[in-house]
Structure formats: C-alpha cells, structure tokens
Amino acid sequence: MKTKIAIIGGGPAGLAAAIAAKEAGVEEVLIIERDRVLGGILNQCIHNGFGLHTFKEELTGPEYAARFIEKAKELNVEALLNTIVIDISRDKVITAMSAEKGVFTIEAEAIVLAMGCRERPRGALNTPGYRPAGIYSAGTAQRYVNIEGKMPGHDVVILGSGDIGLIMARRMTLEGAKVHAVAELMPYSGGLKRNIVQCLDDFDIPLKLSTTVVDIAGKDRVESVTLAKVDAKNKPIPGTEEIIKCDTLLLSCGLLPENELSSQMGVDLSPITGGPRVDESLETDIDGVFACGNVLHVHDLVDYVSKEATEAGEHAAEFVKGASKRDSEAAIGIETGNGVRYTVPVCIRKSRLRDLLTVRFRVGNVYKDPEICVYLGDKCIQRRKKQICAPGEMEQVILKKTDIEAMNSGETIRIAIENESK
Q1: I want to staple 374 with a disulfide (CB 3.0 to 4.6 A). Which of 94, 198, 248, 382 is the partner?
Q2: What is the pLDDT of residue 244?
Q3: What is the CATH number of the domain that holds 239?
C-alpha cells in the first residue's frame, strides 16, 4: 500500500493536518487511527470552551471534532480506523496491524506525527501506600463518566492541578460526588486560570498548593489519603499531614507526548518537552517527517493544536510536491533565556520562512509583570509587557521574515523573560 502523506493519529491534530494537506492539492492523504472513530480525546471532553479562536464560538469537544470530521469527509480523506501502527522506518515505511487486514505495510512520501499525549501514571509518581481499587488517572475517570456512564467513586481527592484534573473536579461534583480537595505539588497550578475559577472556585473546592499525597490507605478499596505540605525541594514536611477519608483518588500529574514510535524511528527528541525537535516547517531531523499537536509539545488549547497541525499539513504537502526540500543552508538556532523552558520550533531556515512565524513556548515559573523579550543577535526587536506568565499557559511570539533575513551570519534568536516583579 502506498500514499503520498500518512498521518499517524486521527485526533484534532491529525484531522487538521489531513484537511490542510488535501486543500493544498495532495490527493493521497491517509489517516491511521487506532480507535474505532475519529476525533481523539475530544470525544470524551463534553464540556464547552473549545473553538473560541478557530470558530469564534464556544463548542463542546465532540462538536469541535465533528466540524473537522465533516470537513475531512467532504474532502474524501481516507482513514484506516481500528488500526495500530507498530513501527515506522527512517525511509517512511509504516508497519501497521488491524483485525481486518492483519499486519501490513504502508509506504509514504511524507509522514505527519500526530499521536497526541498520555497521562503520567502512578508508577512514575512514586506515591507510597497500598494499591487498592479507586485510583484512576483523571482522563480514565473522564471516559468512565462521559462515555461509559459510570461513576468511579463518590468521595474524591485529586492529585495534580492539570486542566483535566480541574475539569474533572467540576464534573464529579456535578454528578453528585464530593471532591474534598485538589492537591498540587508545585507552588502554582498547572492548569489554565479560567479552569481554576470555573471548576474549583465556583464550587468551593479547595486548591492546596505545595501539597502532595504521602500515603494511600485501604487494601481492597481506597479508604483515605494522607496529604502533606512540601518544602522548596518538594520533600514532605513532617507535622503537616492531613488525612482525608475518600474512596477515589484521581491523578492529574502531567501529560507526556506519545513518542514511542518517534523514538523507534530515530527522531531527535527534546529532553524538556519529550516531543520532536522541529524547524520552522515543523519538520523533524528526518526529511519528510513532520510533527504537530500534543505529540510535539503539550498544548493548553485545542485551537492552537489545530492551527499548528494545519501548518504541518501544508508543509508536508509542499514537501511531496518538491517545493520544500532541505538544503545545505545553515539553520538559525532559537535559544531560551531567563525563565523560558523551551521553544517550538528550535531552529529556522531563512529560505523556507513564510512572512510571519509563530514561536510557541512555556515558562518554568510564575512571573509577575514580566516582559517577554525577543533578541535577534544582540538587538532586542520585541519587548511585550504581561501581567503574569505561568507554566500552565502557553505563550507565543510572532517573528517577521524581513527581520530574520536581516540577521548576520552566526547570530541566533533568543527569547527571554525580563524585568519581572520580585
């Protein structure tokens, strides 16, 4: 089996990339999706808040996904459902399997990685205590409630203040459960400010910062959890323990880009994001292999996923048409300054730039009244004041092609946080 562009994953990123590639004039575009339907995680996100940037209206997750699914069908995008990709070679041969076809291969001229992300499991948290029933990731609990129609429990504690955990605090409350607290190891929340307000404050659910679970009691079913304050090194502080009786513990302790396939094929991965290191075209270090969405870096808004994936699909289309091949041109690196943890992309080639380039990044701490500064070489070309920058919200700067073309050989781009209030 052969195709021009193969897209691994049929969630919001894969759908947007496929639509963009089709609209760019590539007829053979194939989505490979392991689930029985397209749409990805959006199918279980029945709350609203999606689409404000993309469609200028507020939609639920399934409604947002449906817009893209309908468009993909209109464009006759082919999709292999219930199909698991088990290997991708560096020369872009995909090995997949399904109940219908067995094990088979697909040869692609370009590949877009759009596998999304997964939740950090309890095993990665080293949480002490028994291993009883009643411990779920927040996303698993969301699926049980919203898709399966089952309640994981009725007395709930949530560890981690990621957006899924915050949203599930509200969801469990609306379904009649008592959410006793959301505990967060860090001194700041990992979720969007609007979710803290709408999901916790509006329901009088306490958010306990610099707090973690130090014990889980109960052999057959969770009976209680013990919370404790932590110090600056995230070590529990003796004497601060608080026992909360509950039957359910939900874990919302971060998301990890799903990059086992990327790693197997030898894609260069960032140790900070866990996703591929990409250039201005969202192309990895392997020619013709692109990445977008949460497999690249974890986003806070699906609208940004769709926008980024649209660009990846367009660049993949340019690649198969022969108009976007990499040459020997040296790349300009993007460096991170004070407070900036990473950037996407990590480098730029002048010859492949569009008029405007969006560089997305996250900060590593909470900064009050900071300035986001962009340097081209030693020259500061942007200085934007903000009330606050926090790790839970993605930031971005927009660079002009004309500014970058004026850079001297050997110069780099640097993005930094400056002049923050102490």
Answers
A1: 382
A2: 97
A3: 3.50.50.60
